[in-house]
Structures are given as structure tokens and as C-alpha cells.
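so the lab meeting is tmrw and i was supposed to have these ready like two days ago... anyway. pasting both below. for each one the top line is the aa sequence and the line under it is the C-alpha cells. i havent really looked at them closely yet so no promises
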Amino acid sequence: MSAAPSFAPPFAFAGQSFQMLADRALFWPRHAALIVADLHLEKASWYAALGQPLPPYDSHDTLDRLARLAAETGARAIWCLGDSFHDRDAASRIVPAIAQRLRGQAAATKLLWIAGNHDGLTGGAWGGEIADEHVVDGIVFRHQSVACETRAEISGHFHPKLRLNVRGRHVSRPCFAGDEQRLILPAFGSLTGGIAAADPVIAANFAGPYQAMLVARGRRLCFPCPGAARDDATASRALPAN
């Protein structure tokens, strides 16, 4: 039996064609760019330093998944939208094997690190480039959404999750949250939590109703979120489903 497709058909955002991937990532075919947010590398070692030992495999698993998606999509660039490292001292805890993998990924693709609120990027770019934000074809890529931004924007930071009751079972999955102007990516890291996509903290980033979105069986599934209580005639519309 063949595996279900890992990414959905293209959808339009800000006049461009993107694809959502089931494994918490976005692909932009025009630029062959794989876009992820919130890797939180070295989170387990951070907990260990606090006396809460966790298996030290989260960074390896996250980088395994990143390399697999880069190979599957044929990505020539990887853009990491902030909080790629769990804390500002993560660089001092990275073992040689992880550092080598990061350098290898930077050699295979153009690796861009967008600074986040957790990052310790002063520890080095491991062959990649560092920026506060990145603007391509009129779309701004940054870590955290900016309320006054008038351009189309893609960001991370909030770790949105879709929470559903399916046949009497509570199901929670990382998801995208977005409308026609803003798109918030799920956390890509293997050891990351999240908050409900409809939570007021996330809703405050949108001018009106928006959608929680994820990929299942090769389809992009969209679930409405009411948005914050605003009376704004300029509120952007939710993305159409496909």
C-alpha cells in the first residue's frame, strides 16, 4: 500500500503559489524554498541542564525530518523563521555531530536563519546566513507577526495546534493559522508544544476570521476560527480551501 502524499496541492497566498507539507512545513516552488519555524534545537539538553533529563535525540530527529523534506521537495534553500535554537546558550551545548549536520545542510542548501526571541545565533551560523527578517516578492518573513504590518507576512512563534473531538476522542495536531494576508506556521521542532489555533493570543494577529489548516491524505483541510472581536471593514478574508 502506497503512503499518503506528504504535501497538498498548491494554494494561493499573496499572489504566489505555495504548498503545505504534512510535516509542519511550507514549500515555495518558485524559489525552491523550504520554510519552517521554531525548530527549538537543543531543547532536551536545556531541560537536562535544569535537572530534568530527557533523551538527547530531539535535535537529531528535527534535523532528520528537515533533511528528508529538503530531499523530497528538491529545496535549494531552507528558511528558518526564528527560535531555531531553544535558548541563547544552545550553541555551547551542541555536540560535534549536530554541528557537523548543520554545516552539511548549509552546504547542500542555502540556509537562512531568521532571528527569534529564543535564539542564540551569535554562536554561529554553521555556514548559513542570519537576518532579522527576509522580504521576497513583497512577502515579509519574520519570527513573530507584527500587528501594524501592511505587507503579506509569514511568521512563526505561536506554535498553533488544532484541537478536535473526533468520534469521542480528543485529537491535537500542529497546524497553520492564516488568512489572505498573514500565515503563521506550526512549530517544526520535534520537542515543541503549542496553543490552540483559536486562542485569543493567536486570534489577535488577524483582522477578522481566519483558518486553522493542516495536511491530511494529500489534502489541505481548513477549519474556521472566529478571530478577535473587531469591527474592521478592512479585515482580510480567509484562505479558500482546496
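ok protien two:
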Amino acid sequence: MIHDQTPCFTAFEGQRRIASGPLADVALAVKHAETRTTAPIAIYSDATGRPVDLDLRGSDDDVTARLQRTSPVEATGPRGRGRPKLGVVAREVTLLPRHWEWLSAQPGGASVALRRLVDEARRANGERDRNRAARDAAYHFMSAMAGNLANFEEAARALFADDRRRLAGLIATWPDDIRDHVIKLVERI
């Protein structure tokens, strides 16, 4: 399985897909589509299946510049203490006293031990975590775009049971672009 590292987004005008690709490209396609339609337009993150809100005011250059200035770190708030050049972010961790005792006895201290444990868990569970994220993304998208369509509940059950053949049969009558996008998201599982 190949995992593309470039975030991908997909925009829908009603039930019709109008663009898919990098956020800047999709944002500009939506900006131009808004001038010719009154139908609702929504942009979805392919990674999460959730809608994305964008500020599309101004010229194409204004929109692109705003998107380039917005980074994941800026979106989560100001940076605190830590090692910013390494990307270290300080957050609160709540543990029982026996956990703190064990962590502080580890070589390098609590931070090194926690980073090592997280890396080991990511290696051991990476594929399962990616599959769960892809399934969740497909479900979030399905809920938003197909929640009122025929067979939605059964399709959701088939998705979580990883019964792709049944899922494909249940969504066969859905609008082509919605059905195809669900299949695209499910194929990442």
C-alpha cells in the first residue's frame, strides 16, 4: 500500500465532485465555482473525511497567500516552551505516581522514555492505526454527504465490518461522485 504524504482535499458542489487535490488547487476551484452556482459547496479532507472551512475572499493570489501562511502549528495555537527547531511541543500528561516513578528511572528521563514508547507503539500498530483512520475518514464523509441516502446505515455497518463487497453493493445506487469518493477513501484501508 502506498501512502501519499501530500494532503489531499476534495470539493463537492451538491452531490457533484468539482475538484480533488492539494488544498490550494481545490480552494481556487471552489472560489471560481462559487461565482457560477448557488448550490452548496463543501471541501473535505481526504485524510479525515471532515469538512474544511476556508477564507476565499479576495483574489486568487490572496487566497493562495493565506493558505501558505497557515501551517498546522499556527492552527493549534502559539508555541510554548520546548525545542522549537526540533518540533518539540510541550503538552500535559497525566499519569499515576507509579508511572512517573518508572518513567523517571528510565535512561534519559520521562521525555525520552515516552518518546521511545510512542515510537515503538507507532511501529507495532502503524498499519492498524492507518486503517482505522481511513475507515473513520470514509465514515465521516459518508455521514456528511450520504447520511440521508438509501442504505446508509447498512453501508456504515459494512464499512466497519470491513465487508467491501457488501459496501460496494449497498452504495451502488448513490450519486456517482459520492459513491466513487467513498470507494477512494475505503481503498486506503
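from a quick look at the 2nd one: The beta strands are 9-13, 16-21, 41-45, 51-52. The longest strand covers residues 16-21. will dig more after coffe
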